[in-house]
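Slide 14.
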Amino acid sequence: MNAFATYHFQILCTFFLLLPVFAQAQELKIDSLGYETFEMVEGDTSYTMKKYFLVLLKEGENRSQPDSIAGEIQKGHMANMNTLAEKGYLHIAGPMAEQGSTKGMMILSVPTIEEAQNMVAQDPAVIAGRLIMEVQPFWAAKGSTLK
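Slide 15: predicted structure.
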């Protein structure tokens, strides 16, 4: 089997391994605050799964500002993230460990992808073109934390 076929075979196997987990998931619900959730049972444990949004902040096309202006944009970026955290929307954020085109990430808890995109679009670094965003929905057990 060539590498391409092996890769797709692995994806297919992973899908079939996860089928029993998804089969135990109940129907998708919208809670009182507008968040998508569903119940998942794994063995004798039941989880409420909730949709969150992973935001990847990538290098934008306009990064040629003088250091003093870039510094002010960064202060505004940090202030915006602090505001999102204080309001309970931002759960985890940080810069990437490797120096590449992806500069940082955030996990937002908001009901819709449009709300996540709108929040990130308000960030001074995004407005200035220093950063662009990629927003991806994902599921996690409600209340999950880093350990």
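Speaker note: DSSP finds four helices and six strands in the chain.
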